[in-house]
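Lab notebook page, bench 4
Experiment: in silico fold of construct C2
Operator: M.H.
Input chain length: 208 residues
Purpose: comparison with the prior construct
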Amino acid sequence: MKRLQLGVLASGRGSNFEAILRHIEAGKLWADVRVLVSSRKTAGALEVAGAYGIPALAVSRKDFPTDEAFDENLLEIFQKHHVDFLILAGYLRLLTPVLIHPFKNKILNIHPALLPSFGGKGMYGPRVHEAVLEYGCRVSGVTVHLVDESYDSGPIVAQRCVPVENGDTPDTLAARVLEQEHKIFPEALQLFAEERIAIKGRRVYIQA
């Protein structure tokens, strides 16, 4: 068993980030957040970090010539802060091998649907819930998965179903899904802290 030293990448309001911090405070997640990096200066996640006294900064892709150079800068930040595990908490950029390889099988993302359905490039936020409702699904859900070089395609660590109710709108469905996101993301991270995760190819096994 170990205490994860987390680096967080975020682009939005940071509700999953805050849920993780609450689980750490409650002793339900063995981790410390070492630093948060946002791709947007206006991201709410930066305010969350400030409220908890966590080092945080905004880094813009526009300041770098290539995606690889951008990720090299991120890698240097995480190394400086002694990070050993990354989480994507509403982060909208695709990672390159420059960042993925040093953290192989140690980067988790959360997606507001049951992958492999309703994932991929451009599928984030309200777009996901709109697509679920348009397709007529009776069940949606949440997926926590490892990150690879493609959008939403890494091995699945955990999933949880959320019913689609009569009269649902993208907003009402999103609220129900988000409630489960705030539970399953910290729970999945805790499995890594307890060293209960075994990965063989694309299969993730949870050990007792």
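Observations: The two ends are 13 Å apart (CA to CA). The first strand starts at residue 4 and ends at 10.
Next step: discuss at group meeting.
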